[in-house]
Request: fold
Amino acid sequence: MSALQSIQEPRLQSGQYILQQIWCTARQLYNQGTIATLQWVPAHEGIVGNEMAHSCAQMATKRKAKLAGDEGPRLKSRALQIGREWIRAEKTRRFDQLQVGKFTRTIDKALPREHMTLVYNALHREEAKILSQLRTGHTPLNDNLARIGAEQSANCVCRMGVESVQHFLFYCPKWRNERTKLREAMADRWGDLAYALGGWSGRRDRRNSRFVDGPREKWKPNLKIIKATIQFVIKTKRFQPKATIAKYTEGIEARAIEDTRVSGEMVVSDDESVGSSL
Ligand SMILES: [Zn+2]
Reply:
């Protein structure tokens, strides 16, 4: 009898998913023009449906009983946990579909706001500003300046190619001495931009096809590496911009840091952020 009462008046009792399924099925039937009526029947009286339900229930209590579908018996806490996992998966799916913040996503395929809030809060303002610049691509490096029309060429003064974030951090011969410590810290992950900037790369190890950064949901950025990257940038003084460049970048960084402190990471479309800050 209490099961019928629960179905009629669902409260916050354990086993919510069962009640939900019953309601859902009833609604589906109703939509198809069938009205379901719940009727109490005495047990063990040879009523066919009741006997079937009884033997199914007995089977389910046996050890290693396989349950129909993927619905296991769930207590409220387990149901809540599954709900949270679903929300997380949904957030991740939407993040992956975003068409904005492309540069950030090339280096970090994890949900940035979740792990980056912790990182940004562990940094000084100046450090946070540099990291934000590197992660969003809004740097005073020539490839970005050329992109926004503040510099004619994207090439580096070393004449070895475009002055991109990668070129600047790992390859430009101009900063060989400044990057000794960063190289040591990164060791065999040298050249891995995602690793240097606290991102989950999504790359797989060729030998065992596992993610090189481990599973996405367990990912934690390496603060030591991030700080070594920032220290390298500070040492080069390359991000101490000229007056005009400062004018361009300051608006963006101020907003980026504001955003990151609140929600973890700036995810804006490149065009929008440039347009509104000029
Ligand atoms: Zn160079």
The longest helix spans residues 76-97. Residues 266-278 have pLDDT under 50 and may be disordered. The pocket of zinc ion is lined by residues 156, 158, 160, 163, 167, 172, 174 (CB under 6 Å). The chain has two domains: 2-77, 99-277.
